[in-house]
Amino acid sequence: MQSRRSFIKVCILSASIAAMGAPSGALAADTIKVGVLHSLSGTMAISETALKNTALMTIEEINASGGVLGKKLEPVVVDPASDWPLFAEKARQLIAQDKVAAVFGCWTSVSRKSVNPVFKELNGLLFYPVQYEGEELEKNVFYTGAAPNQQAIPAVEYLMSEEGGGAKRFVLLGTDYVYPRTTNKILRAFLKNKGVAEADILETYTPFGHSDYQTIIADIKKFASAGKKTAVISTINGDSNVPFYKELGNAGLKATDVPVVAFSVGEEELRGVDTKPLLGHLASWNYFMSLKNSQNETFIGKYKAWAKKNGVPNADTVVTNDPMEATYVGLHIWKQAVEKAGSTDTDKVIAALSGQTFKSPSGFTLTMDKTNHHLHKPVFIGEVRADGQFDVVWKTKAPIRAQPWSPFIPGNEGKQGL
Q1: CA 109 to chain centre
Q2: Do 367 and 357 touch, CB atoms closer than 8 A?
Q3: Which pairing describes strands 169-175 and 365-368: parallel, antiparallel, or unpaired?
Q4: What domains does the chain contain, in order, with CATH numbers?
Q5: Which tens digit of pLDDT belongs to each residue from 40-91?
Q6: Rounded Cα distance, 418 and 416, in Å
Q7: Looking at the predicted structure, is the pLDDT value of residue 383 above 50?
Q8: Contacts of 307 (CB under 8 A, 6+ apart)
Q9: How large a percentage of the chain has pLDDT more than 90?
Q10: In sequence order, what are the beta bridge partners of 127?
Q11: For the chain: N or C, fewer Cβ within 10 A?
């Protein structure tokens, strides 16, 4: 009996010594950390908070199905507060201090441009879920939102078509930063290629958080009075969309007179707007909540249930939108790539991401391109409904391969892959 007791004591002592000598990160090694880098305050919170929620929902979904490589995912959420330099600081914290395996985040291109050098320096991995201006291709970034040829160009082609109203004059209206300016540079080149004269293009920018659109709407009405069918291409971002659309309604500028097509307005942004005066105005995206398919029904149901369970404000009226879907897809294809690689090592995961596919809530199977780090995506153009949803009026038959380097910009010939 004494021998047995001694043996047990030795085992306990050995276990204690092993525990004392274990590295401090041993328990953390039981999980895989992922970063969530979205503005939860400031001008972009209106758009980005829902992406944080979607990331957390998807992480819960993945954990409930067994996690990744047999480990649970552990989210690390930070708030860069719509402060572009702070995005870089928070990205460095996530990679260097929190040791996350990947980061899901950013909305504006200026925030993405701010973090790009950090991901390159530290060899981190960023999944960027929002439409953007292209003219960029980074080894450490995977773009699950649209390039210009997957959103902006098809939208303008639609407006110029007979089906879309046959627009001849264009107002390029945006928030004053890199995404609207570069997108409009591409659209100017595209319109010139289509024979549109400089005099038939009006280009206007407002700062982040801008709220007084009376003068701008008056200028648009004057520009549209020249006798040619006029359309507005809106790259306004963040909470400025609310006063813009309110003033549009106040001025009685209807879609039948001057249609507006937006690239940064979806179901989430329209929750704060009386949409009745906006009937018929347009948005171009790669996903709408109103799409009818089984994947989308499941996605919407999961998000509504998650919102209610986690006390999201106004949980009964939450909506889904394009960047939320892109966040959801990004997390799932990252999971698939990690399991294919058998590791969270950045270089191994980058290699494994090539060619990954996922049946998305858009109803299409999306493919991560083998050379340019962009998803092949379908394009939908929708009209605003009175309930803040969209009726699809045009769509592509199949997903379109992204062109991150626009062929309408001189010098981009042949530049499409890393």
Answers
A1: 10
A2: yes
A3: unpaired
A4: 149-285 (3.40.50.2300)
A5: 999 999 999 999 999 999 999 999 999 999 999 999 999 999 999 999 999 9
A6: 7
A7: yes
A8: 53, 315, 318
A9: 84
A10: 104, 142
A11: N
